[in-house]
Amino acid sequence: MGKKKKGNIAKRRAKSRQKTEKKRKLRLVKGRSKEDTRTIYRPGLSELGAPEGFRSVPPAQAMMEYAKPLMELVKGEEDFEDAMQAGMVLWNYALSVEKGDTDKKIEQEILKEMGDCFGLDHKGAKALFMRMIERQGYLFPPDIQPKGSPFMFIRKEVRHLIKPFDYTTLDLSDEIIPPDKKDKVFLDTLDQLDSQISAGVDYGEYERLFLSLKDECQVRFEKWLKDKGLSQDIELFSNCLDVYLDFVYGYMHDDVITLKTVTLIYIVEFFEDYLVRKVMTEPHEYVYWPPAVKLFYGFLYEKGYLKEPEKIVKGITEVEPYFIQVLKKQFA
């Protein structure tokens, strides 16, 4: 990308961010009234000022990262929930240790529960207990945590190599695949959803329609990818749709937006903030989102949902290098 293009995207990103910071709001998605609105000016995670060697994470991701050693010891959804509960107990006790407010009786109760939960004898439970107590302070040093912020700074345990997506791996057919009967049913549902969104209908009234559409959307998109000749990473691409659809239709914005009317401001917000904040995955997998969303708009174009996807696709393409920089700042 030449200097002129870099300058253009920098100016547009700055303008978009300025407008987004003025407008970005967190709202209860089921309450669209102004009374349910709380304005919070919030930059993207990578812009929250984490010190060198650290990155910013929301509380849920902080707990997930902290509990990783426990997750490695269990299998199954029920065991996963037990491990998360154990992680929260250990986190809270670690904070007590940090304050010098320990209780040997509570410690013994925790050791017993850990032994039962993870199938460990007393020695093994004690070793894991000590590891987790030390881990909390190591990952989240109290002296560097931001004041008055819901986010935390976590130490980068591993530095990841972030590479842009290799588009040469996408060898898709140029042949346009028109909609079949199931595609047309899906598109009718999508049009219904857009109509309700445009009419300002409350989320509670279109939630069921939206959830059913998300499931069908993934099925139709995967079929299209296969029909276009894609033979690998199909699920990786289709799984990206869920969070993008949530952002467009399940997250409150200042403007009424649909898949047809997403503007550069919201494309920036999605990649800079929403995606990294809401999704916890392997760092190298984040790079699938820009091509996945662009492919999705190709699918919507060929099926007849929109006539001109170029503007939205171009916006994603312009934001993509910046998104890679966000990922590098977070994980490299």
Explain the overall architecture.
With 332 residues, this protein is mainly α. It has 2 domains: 102 residues, no CATH class; 165 residues, no CATH class. It is 60% helix and 4% strand. The protein contains 12 helices and 4 strands, in the order H-E-E-E-H-H-H-H-H-E-H-H-H-H-H-H. A two-stranded antiparallel ribbon has the order 1-2. The longest helix is centred in the middle third of the chain and has 25 residues. The radius of gyration is 23 Å and the shape is elongated. The two termini are 22 Å apart. The N terminus is likely disordered.
Please mark out the parts with pLDDT under 50 across 5 or more consecutive residues, or reply none: 1-41
- Biggest sheet details: 2 strands, antiparallel
Question: How much is the radius of gyration in Å?
Answer: 23 Å
What is the string of SSEs from the N terminus onward? HEEEHHHHHEHHHHHH
What is the total number of structural domains? Answer: 2
- The proportion of strand residues reads under 5%
Helix share bin: 55-70%
CA distance, first residue to last residue? 22 Å
Question: Which shape, going by the Cα principal axes?
Answer: elongated
Number of helical segments? 12
- Tell how many strands the DSSP assignment holds: 4
Please state how the strands of the largest beta sheet are arranged side by side: 1-2
Compute the average pLDDT: 87
Instruction: Report the structural category.
Output: mainly alpha
